[in-house]
Design goal:
By secondary structure, this protein is an alpha+beta fold. The protein has helices spanning 29-37, 39-42, 54-64, 120-135, 150-160, 181-185; strands at 11-13, 19-22, 74-80, 83-95, 103-111, 140-146, 165-169, 172-180. Strands 1-2-3-4-5-6-8-7 form an 8-stranded mixed beta sheet, with helices on both faces. Helix 1 crosses helix 3. The two termini are 21 Å apart.
Amino acid sequence: MLYDRENPHVIIRSTKLPLVLRSPTPDDAAALLQIFTDPRNVEHDASAGGLDTPEAIQKTIIRWVAFTDPLTHMSLVVEAEGKDIGVGGFGWIGAVKDGSNGRVGDAGIMLNPEARGKGYAYEAIRMTIDHALRVLKLDEVTISMTKANTAMRGLVDKKFRLPPKEFKGDHGMEVQYTIKKNDWLSQLHS
């Protein structure tokens, strides 16, 4: 089972930093609106387009907490020291494209500028990957971004040391990193 049907609210706590990844609630609407309307947060993320009104944020929260079986997404609020500082999780979960019966999730993180440079991005993405591979039992995780997103690429290159795959995607040139379950479980990140 991917989640508890009786209580689908997700809470993932860091053991290293005062950081929590959790399902959004209506109380997060104002913070999410601020996150998605800050141009520094969304300049490299076309998927955030249209999330610029309170109504759009309310609909997004409803969509984010509507769990499916099998799970098709898991979008979470990133909270540090009791304050919403960003969003993360999986915008997409589906079948591995290699023809196997495996499942893959595409992970991402978006943090407010004032929360950057404190280790939160690395820890949030590390927690997301670990949760996906250990708890959700996914077979692999991808991290995809536009090639222009040098900050995220730098984080993944430096902290995870994964080989990037470049391709022409929906948003121009994109970069994707793939983490296989067995590789992750044998590394120090997990």
